[in-house]
Amino acid sequence: MGSSTEIGSPTAAGKNPATAASVPFAVPSSEPCRHDPRPIKIIRPPSFSIATFVAGFVVLTHYADLLYELSLFRLTVRYKQSLLGWAWAVLQPLALMSVYTVIFTRVTKIATGGTPYPIFLLSALLPWTFFSSSVINAVCGMTAYSNLITKMYFPREIIPFSYLSAAFADFCIACVILAWLIVHYDVALSWNILYAFPVMLLLMAFAAAVALFFSAFQVRFRDIGLAMPVLLQVWMFTTPVVYSLQSVPARFRRLYLLDPVAGLIESFRSVVVYRTHPDFTVLTYSAVITLGCFVVGYVYFKAAEATMADIL
Fold this sequence. Notes:
Elements lengths: L3 E3 L3 H4 L3 H5 L4 E3 L21 H12 L2 H15 L9 H20 L9 H28 L1 H6 L6 H27 L11 H25 L2 H14 L16 H4 L3 H13 L7 H25 L3 H4 L1
Antiparallel strand pairs: 1-2
């Protein structure tokens, strides 16, 4: 027991000892070959707590390269075999701006405070388009990539986050139109435009919260993906996109601004078009609600992550 027999030895092969000496290795006769076990990731239902939120983000940082590759893949596939390609990121908001401009300048009038309506509209339409497109695509993304989810482990929130990253790239491209309108209408800029960066960061966080919450529901109830475009269409007209915040009766504004999207879009318009700093009270309300919704949405998504592969 436990001995080994040399290949080509006199006792094993009955050959010349000189031949046996030329074989430099031996094969164990009694011990089986050992292989390193494959790593196994067991997904257990996490607790609904802040610890889940922190642990989820720690794991997510290890998959930053996957998030980058999937985001790049979204952009590549979206405009593949398209004649206009990346120009669609500009043409879509431009077409909407043209239609709304005709309606709200020829058919009816909207108070803009003396600002030309195209730039007034586009300054709110671009962040809204980013929000709506990222939410719609992210919600349906979980079921669209069910084969990937059921075959390998990775943080599932990477799928909705990749759609948000792709939508933000489209937003940056579409900002070329906004910059052209600023030059065309000779709108002077100020340092207050730097507030646009934290405003957009908060809007991304709220879009992520909505996308995470509803994409977890979409795995179980496919009605969410069908109802989301209708919900967002109604949502658009409850935010100051085609009209200003001043058009909302003063007695309803506090309730109206409980929607973070309304406060963030109005803040973006203020710093870009009106060259003023945002209303910090409104911005604070929006930031607090956004961060709260993001934590709740992310923790709920991680709690539902354990059963996603089974349901899909």
